[in-house]
Specification:
Strand order of the largest sheet: 3-2-1-4-5-10-11
CATH class of the largest domain: Alpha Beta
Strand content: 15-25%
Pathway: Carbohydrate degradation; glycolysis; D-glyceraldehyde 3-phosphate and glycerone phosphate from D-glucose: step 3/4
CATH topology of the largest domain: Rossmann fold
Structural class: alpha/beta
Distance between the termini: 46 Å
EC number: 2.7.1.11
GO cellular component, one term: 6-phosphofructokinase complex
Largest sheet: 7 strands, mixed
Catalytic activity: beta-D-fructose 6-phosphate + ATP = beta-D-fructose 1,6-bisphosphate + ADP + H(+)
Cofactor: Mg(2+)
């Protein structure tokens, strides 16, 4: 979609926080300034947009925030913006502040809201995908995924250290209510003995036999990585099943939870966030609207926000082969 060239850009972060958001915010601000636009921050996501919570963005403050996790703009999940009335009030606030374009950094739900807003009210709207679940259709990678995988992997490595010392068995839960990307990647990188994800039905008998065979040697630990949304119910039920299978052992249970959302973003996330940000501003400068930045291979592309939806982990032949060999 093409619209008139914007003069003033607002930027917000919506939904769950991820590492790399501050690098994205800074790059949008710098790219906007370089293109001759003024930039305004919106606090507290779509709720802040509805309430007119506009902020001046200081360059030095933005630079200092790059190494930090979270978002200096704060974020929220807005029920009001899911309604036509809420989006109309947001449009009213933007017009009152003489803002004609909007950059939304969010997951599939936030970007769906951005698509509806662009269609209804005629603002230039660009979306930037972020989620530690990496489950946004149209882009290979989302902001925050790389850091979350590394955080989970490092936690698994630490658990493995103590588990190896006592030849113990652990069930480790990572985030992923509907997607197995994080569990699969962290489990593969952490040399897990089993990975349970929402995209597959667990073959518990096969997994149990494999674990028992490995446990016979008593030379090391066993570790099963479980996505929170797996049909088993998460790591706690898995730990109970492991206890039944290994009654003589004390089964360890660790839920990584929100530790995966925080922390300093990796170089990969900072660079990806910066590339997405500049591409979004360049698109606005070119008069484009209703698009999302996406990484496809090593190229940054634009895809229609209206096509964005949640994407499950694709169990490609390569991924299945890797699991067959390594897990």
């Amino acid at each position: 979609m093409t619209t008139k060239v914007a003069k003033r850009i607002a930027i917000l972060t919506s939904g769950g926080d991820v590492p790399g958001l501050n690098a994205c915010i800074r790059a949008v601000a710098l790219a906007a300034e370089r293109s001759g636009f003024s930039i305004v921050g919106v606090a507290h996501g779509y709720d802040g947009l509805i309430d007119g919570e506009f902020l001046h963005l200081e360059t030095e403050v933005l630079r200092a925030a790059v190494p930090r996790g979270g978002t200096i703009l704060r974020s929220a999940r807005s029920k009001r913006f899911t309604t036509a009335e809420g989006r109309a009030e947001a449009a009213k606030q933007l017009r009152a502040a003489h803002i004609d374009s909007l950059v939304v950094i969010g997951g599939d739900g936030s970007l769906t809201g951005a698509a509806a807003f662009a269609a209804e009210h005629g603002f230039a709207v660009m979306g930037i995908p972020k989620t530690i679940d990496n489950d946004v259709e149209g882009t290979d990678v989302c902001i925050g995924f790389d850091t979350a995988v590394n955080t989970a992997m490092q936690a698994i490595d630490r658990i493995r250290d103590t588990a190896d010392s006592h030849a113990r068995i652990f069930a480790v839960e990572v985030m992923g209510r509907d997607s197995g990307y994080l569990a699969w990647a962290a489990g593969m990188a952490g040399a897990a003995d089993g990975i349970l994800i929402p995209e597959t039905d667990a073959d518990w008998r096969s997994l149990e036999e494999k674990l028992k065979e490995r446990h016979k040697t008593r030379t090391g630990s066993l570790l099963v990585v479980v996505a929170e949304g797996d049909e088993t119910g998460g790591a706690a039920p898995v730990a109970k099943r492991l206890q039944a299978a290994f009654p003589e052992e004390s089964i360890g249970l660790c839920v990584l939870g929100h530790t995966q959302r925080g922390g300093s973003p990796t170089a990969s996330d900072r660079i990806l966030a910066t590339r997405f940000a500049v591409a979004a501003v360049d698109a606005i400068a070119a008069g484009k609207s209703g698009m999302m930045t996406a990484l496809v291979g090593d190229d940054i592309r634009l895809v229609p926000i209206a096509s964005v939806r949640r994407r499950p982990l694709a169990l490609t032949p390569e991924r299945l082969r890797l699991m067959e060999i390594l897990i």
